[in-house]
Design brief:
This protein has 201 residues and is an alpha/beta fold. It is 35% helix and 22% strand. The protein has one domain: GTP cyclohydrolase II (Rossmann fold), CATH 3.40.50. The chain is built from eight helices and seven strands. It has a seven-stranded mixed beta sheet with strand order 1-2-3-5-4-6-7, sandwiched between helices. Helix 6 links the parallel strand 6 and strand 7. Bound molecules: zinc ion (ZN). The site of zinc ion has 4 residues, from loops. Its EC number is 3.5.4.25.
Length: 201
């Protein structure tokens, strides 16, 4: 069953994409940017990006979301067989209001994992059913996933999407996001390679 969506061509600084927006009564529309040609018979390059207004829109240096978003669109465009799925689950699923509270706690020295827990949240509340739904609508069952996050790989596999390859998406660390990277690596077990090894050990 296809879910209700609307779509058109979108010209961006990375090139042309097909933009598909799913209807959502809560205003949490899932958005897909896919390459003009899409062949689901071979594994498709996929980025599942959860919304981060501060990073994606304002260029915040406290995380690497905006940079990951740009790098993903670039890679997807280059590969000519890919999809970016933009999920509206801000702040690892706790929302912008609560995320800013976690930033206050991070200023006091707590890391992103501890801050979430102190506010009564799970360390990561994101879910990926909407990504699975969108992939299924496109007839995609096998993907090459752009991520450093092993639990995202597992979650997609558990939802029945075969992740045939994980493509790393490692951004350089800076003064503001160094602790964020360390907690991603040590608490969320993200894969980081030597690219940030110089700053984050
Ligand atoms: Zn972010």
């Amino acid at each position: 069953m296809q879910h209700p969506f609307t779509e058109t061509m979108l010209a961006t600084k990375f090139g042309h994409f097909n933009i598909r927006v799913y209807a959502d009564t809560q205003g949490k529309e899932t958005v897909l940017l896919s390459t003009e040609k899409l062949d689901p018979s071979i594994p498709v390059c996929v980025r599942i990006h959860s919304e981060c207004m501060t990073g994606d829109t304002f260029g915040s240096l406290h995380c690497d979301c905006g940079e990951q978003l740009d790098a993903s669109l670039q890679k997807i465009k280059e590969g000519e067989n890919g999809v970016l799925i933009y999920l509206r689950q801000e702040g690892r699923g706790i929302g912008l209001f609560e995320k800013i509270k976690t930033y206050q706690l991070q200023k006091k020295g707590y890391d992103t994992y501890e801050a979430n827990v102190l506010l009564g949240h799970e360390p990561d509340e994101r879910t990926y059913e909407k990504a699975k739904m969108a992939l299924e609508d496109l007839g995609i069952t096998r993907i090459r996933l752009l991520t450093n996050n092993p639990s995202k790989v597992n979650d997609m596999m558990n939802l029945g999407i075969e992740v045939v390859e994980r493509i790393p998406l490692v951004m350089p660390a800076n003064t503001y996001n160094e602790r964020y990277f360390i907690s991603k690596r040590d608490k969320f077990h993200h894969f980081f390679q030597e690219t940030i090894g110089a700053k984050v050990r």
